[in-house]
Design brief:
Immunoglobulin-like; 6% helix; 6-stranded antiparallel beta sheet; globular
Length: 166
């Protein structure tokens, strides 16, 4: 038996943790990033069912439950897709979505935001807007979006990641 933060772990769990830790280790969370939690509000149709919504039916996004962005890692500048929903959205209106990312706990160039596109899938609830977000550094980042007079802001933490041998 092992123990982690007061929690007893079985031998297989300890072995699994020991094997995983050398491969990727996240920098310590200093607790200084006031991450935005999902509201827990369930939005109606056509929004997919989720407890991770943030926003309203006018403009909404699904946030990571813990507010930590787990993109593709530092080799890809912490890049990932970010889907945006708005009730009544129709393809062709995506150019009205403006997104920016600003680091709020240090100096950094702004996040690189792709051109907005649209995507459709039943699992997405139908049509949605899509951007790729690429953060140039780890840290505490505010994402701000405007769409047809609606504004939505939230904060995510981009953890520093150390790769083996680096």
């Amino acid at each position: 038996m092992g123990e982690l933060n007061g929690t007893k772990l079985s031998i297989p769990a300890v072995a699994l943790l020991a094997a995983a830790l050398p491969q990727i280790s996240h920098a310590e969370n200093t607790g200084t990033c006031a991450r935005t939690p999902p509201s827990g509000q369930i939005l109606g149709k056509p929004f997919p069912a989720s407890d991770n919504w943030y926003g309203s039916e006018a403009l909404a996004v699904m946030l990571p439950p813990d507010g930590i962005w787990r993109g593709m890692g530092p080799a890809y500048h912490y890049r990932n897709k970010l889907f945006w929903w708005s009730s009544g959205f129709k393809p062709g209106n995506e150019s009205n979505l403006k997104v920016k990312g600003t680091r709020i706990d240090g100096d950094s160039p702004p996040a690189n935001i792709s051109n907005v596109s649209s995507a459709h899938s039943p699992s997405l609830g139908g049509w949605t807007m899509l951007v790729a977000v690429e953060f140039p550094s780890a840290g505490c980042w505010e994402i701000a979006a405007r769409y047809l007079g609606q504004e939505l802001k939230f904060v995510v933490e981009i953890p520093a990641v150390k790769r083996p041998g680096v």
